[in-house]
From TrEMBL:
Its EC number is 4.1.1.97. It comes from Streptomyces albus (strain ATCC 21838 / DSM 41398 / FERM P-419 / JCM 4703 / NBRC 107858). GO terms for biological process: purine nucleobase metabolic process; urate catabolic process. This is 2-oxo-4-hydroxy-4-carboxy-5-ureidoimidazoline decarboxylase. Signal peptide: none annotated.
Length: 220
């Protein structure tokens, strides 16, 4: 994402489709996601925008997710000249050289194992927490990791959509977001106020998570 627009929901609703689509693609680089969200306009409240984002995300195929992930830089290496990427990863920017080297090594190992960038909603997380999350998620199966990637992308989308839509003046609460899982760092620190709001976990997601977390014969 190369810009940080604060447009407001009413102005976003009124934009020509091409301009609105361009803004959405800066938030999430999946054309399928952007098209689905665009089709939900006009939005009466920010919560409606979040709901449309989550519904679109749930329908993305693996190739759609790959398109979205390809636009995210590795943790510890935000895109040069991209203030949004730099802000989202500021916790890693102040890391010691030792931790930066660990992050680089873990990122490479993760990409070798799963074939895509390590995706996490890094807002509010310190370098040590990001490192620990990388270590933990390297132990996941590809199927479990895909579930987590989808959830983390939803969190990132919510934060970026909040900046796009600006303050919500409607009476509706925007408490729609991805559930927090046990794989998340336990102490996100002082940056939690900038995190996306959470939404209850769907029954099918809970069942998939419980099944994925059962110990397997022989161990791993």
């Amino acid at each position: 994402m190369t810009s940080d627009p604060a447009l407001g929901l009413d102005r976003f609703n009124a934009l020509p489709p091409e301009e609105a689509a361009d803004l959405l693609l800066e938030i999430c680089a999946s054309p399928a996601w952007a098209s689905a969200v665009l089709g939900g306009r006009p939005f009466a409240a920010r919560a409606d925008l979040f709901e449309a984002s989550d519904a679109a995300l749930d329908l993305l195929s693996e190739s759609d997710l790959a398109e979205a992930m390809a636009a995210h830089p590795p943790i510890g290496r935000p895109k040069e000249g991209d203030p949004v990427s730099a802000r989202e990863q500021r916790g890693a920017a102040s890391a010691s050289e030792e931790i930066k080297a660990e992050l680089l090594d873990l990122n490479l190992r993760y990409q070798d194992r799963f074939g895509h960038v390590f995706l996490i909603c890094a807002t509010g997380l310190g370098a040590e927490q990001l490192r620990d999350a990388l270590r933990e998620r390297l132990e996941n199966t590809p199927e479990r990791e895909l579930q987590i990637v989808r959830r983390e992308l939803g969190r990132i989308n919510h934060i970026r959509l909040t900046r796009l839509a600006g303050p919500d003046t409607s009476a509706r609460s925007d408490t729609l977001a991805r559930p927090d899982g046990a794989d998340r760092p336990k102490d996100p620190g002082s940056g939690t106020a900038d995190r996306a709001p959470e939404r209850p976990e769907k029954p099918e997601e809970a069942e998939a998570t419980a099944e994925a977390d059962k110990p397997k014969d022989g161990g791993e």
